[in-house]
Design a protein that fits this description.
176 residues; alpha+beta
Amino acid sequence: MSTVLRIPAGEAHVVRLFAVDEDRAKPHADDAILAALGAGPLKTSEIELFDLADLQGMTLTDYLAEGHGIAAAELSPMQPQVNGLKGRVLILPSRAFEGRAQEMRPHAPLRLVARFSEEVAPVRFTPLPSGSAEGLLTPRANARPQGAGRLRLMAFAVLALMAIGAAVAIGLAVKL
C-alpha cells in the first residue's frame, strides 16, 4: 500500500524532497517519474528533477537552504540522510499545486525523504514618513470637475449639428 499525502488548499512554503530509486544504467523517463507522484494537475515548471552530480560539489542541504530558503535548524537533523542521497532527486514545492487541495499517492521509483518548511520573513509595517503623510485633502471652493467646460461645448456642438440636419431634412421634404 502506498503512502497518501494530503495537500491542503492554499498550502504555501512547503518543500517535499523525494529520492528517485533507479538503476543509473537504465534511468526512468522524466514523465514516468512525474506520474509516480500520484498527484492531480501540477505546475511542472515549479518541480525540480535533477541528478545530484549536477550540484558540482555543493551539498543538497546547502542547495535547499540557498535555493529554497529552508532554515539550517530544520535541515541539520536530516543532514546526513539528505546529503547521503545518490542519483536523482525530485523537489516538489507547494507552489506546484497552485493552491489546490490534493491527495497524492507517490510510488516507486519515488521515495519521500523529507518535508521542509521554507523560512518566511515576518511582515513588518513601518509608519510612512511624517512629512509626506500629514494633512487632509479638501476640494477648492466653487471647483468644477475637470473637463466640464469641454463637455458643455461638445453638447452644444451636437445640438447645433442636429438642428442643421433637421433644417436640411425639412428643406428637402419641402422641395419634393
